[in-house]
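Sanity check

After download, print the first record. It should look like this:
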Amino acid sequence: MSISMQKALKTAHEAEKEGMKNYLKYAKATKYENGKNMFIQLALDEIDHMELIEQFMEKALKGEKITSVNVPKSRLAKFMPDLKDIKKGEKADVSDADALKVALIHEEKASKFYLDEAEKAEDPELKAFFQKLADVEQKHYAIIKAELDFMQEDGFWFDAMEFSLEK
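Expected structure tokens:
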């Protein structure tokens, strides 16, 4: 594996670790059980990703043949929590929506990073690995966006109109 791919995997690992820390901070700060559960599940997904990246790196550094890696679906894909309140942690004046917006930015950046690295990867297994991670991050983005839309009561949920005022 090339030095640039090693750096990409190390960067991916650090990004997942940072995401995990932030999600745990948000889970600790919110008073509502459903909000806590959503952020805890996101943090657990990030831990899964870190472990997969570590396994991939270990095999590659040992010169072992890299085989297809199964990236599990997000735990959050199984349910949609009814989030009522989230606070950012140290700052009490951060709105519920602001915490979700920070999470959206993280997921969007992670997805873009993985897609960019998949594009650069010469090894087909590494390319597939990065693409699978990007897919999971895109699903996280959709779930967080749906919660933000719900909180803002804009009439959309998962980008679909919840109701129509027309007959």
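If your output differs, re-run the checksum step. Summary of this record's structure: The helical segments are 3-29, 33-61, 96-120, 124-152.
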